[in-house]
Design a protein that fits this description.
By secondary structure, the protein is an alpha+beta fold. The protein has one domain: Alpha-Beta Complex (Aminoglycoside 3'-phosphotransferase, Chain: A, domain 2). It is built from twelve helices and 13 strands. The protein has helices spanning 21-27, 94-101, 104-112, 139-145, 151-169, 181-199, 206-213, 262-279, 285-297, 304-321, 331-349, 353-356; strands spanning 30-31, 34-37, 45-50, 53-54, 72-76, 116-117, 121-124, 128-132, 137-138, 224-226, 235-242, 245-250, 257-259. The protein has a five-stranded antiparallel sheet with strand order 2-3-5-8-7, covered by helices on one side. Strands 6-12-11-9 form a four-stranded mixed sheet. The protein has a two-stranded antiparallel ribbon with strand order 1-4. Strand 7 and strand 8 form a beta hairpin. The longest helix is centred in the middle third of the chain and has 19 residues, at 151-169. The radius of gyration is 20 Å and the shape is globular.
Amino acid sequence: MGSIAVSTEVIEQPPSWQKSVHEYLAENDLKCQKATPLQGGASAYIWKLEGLAGQESCSRPKSHLRSVSQACIMKYGDETAKSVAEIKMSPDRMSSEARAMNSKVLAQVCAEEPSVEIPRLVGSTDQAVIMSWAGETDLRSAYIKDQNLDARDAGSRIGRWAAIMHRAGRGNPEVENWACSTRDSVLKLEEDHLRTRLSGDPNFTPEDVERAAAAFHAPDDVHTLSPYDFRPMNTLLRPGQDASRPRITVVDWEITGYGDPAFDLRMWVAEAIATEAKHGGERGLLEGFLTAYRQQAGDSIADTAFVCRVAILVGSIWEFLMPCSLWDCTEADGEHYRKAGREYIRAGIDADRNWLSKSSLAPLLK
């Protein structure tokens, strides 16, 4: 199997539909003045809805709709990922997103670190969620285009928030039984891909391959609430009182479950490294994120075994997703990250603290 290719085209509606988005809303006793398809979302179809309301003629609406005064977002989950045709998805996965947005534990996390938010659930259907508008600029795009953005501050706020989430979720009865079949199937696909790629590399023995694959099966006692697809592109910004310090909203909770927090760190790290390498790393986005995470998480979460899993999984996701249009990477970039990924994997399986202390993961070791 080759590396996954990700399409970023704006798609008007799911190919399985024989209707418009307005007709879909009407089927669920909803209507809106304007529906604009958006580019974001590798797996889900996303629209900006303006003037959303319930159908006046419906006495028993199919969809509970909270008060809406501004534009909002609708995400629809089909049976296949929108941008990655090889990946099959559970069509009811949006219920996981609704569950996360309504959870007490995330409300607690946002209360403890109020500078970072999650969307407010507005309504839902069988395969869609409707949520509050959180802006249209993601953190990666802002990093590239807005030199006034205090990237270190943004990274630090999100890193602290993530550590609070991981601490609050560990052993929490509200979330410890949260399963996610879609995430499990994607991770199985990634693990199989990693095994195949490493087995073809003479620098990795069969024992090395097994040690690398073990990163996908961390012991249950390290599990906590994990959104999994947690990264700068899934972090939206809105203007705040200080232009350099925008409001931050973490989005995309559709494959949230109870699992290894190393998967959250690896997605953030992998994307941030690729972004800083291409657009300048002197602004401290990743360093701020990891330093704040380590300070808040402490040794109970961010121990050496955790850092080694993060290293292996960073290498794995580069094998899985590179090259792809997700991070504007060229073929040469993809080859670079595959090579760099093998170095991260080697350091992780060997628990090479000396190598890791000189890598981008160094702040996690302090």
